[in-house]
TrEMBL record:
The chain crosses the membrane at residues 12-35. This is Sensor histidine kinase. Keywords: Kinase, Membrane, Transferase, Transmembrane, Transmembrane helix. PROSITE patterns: PROKAR_LIPOPROTEIN. One of its GO terms (molecular function) is kinase activity.
Length: 40
């Protein structure tokens, strides 16, 4: 019972971490693109 709950929580954290990582990547890319357009 406890191991299944732990596995579920671990999976939830893992998916949230991946989503956060992808979101940060997208934001970073858009910001770099914006600055490139602003300065060059």
């Amino acid at each position: 019972m406890m191991s299944v709950k732990f596995k579920y929580i671990y999976q939830l954290f893992l998916t949230q971490f991946v989503i956060l990582l992808i979101a940060c990547l997208m934001i970073g890319l858009s910001i770099s693109h914006f600055f490139k357009r602003l300065f060059f």
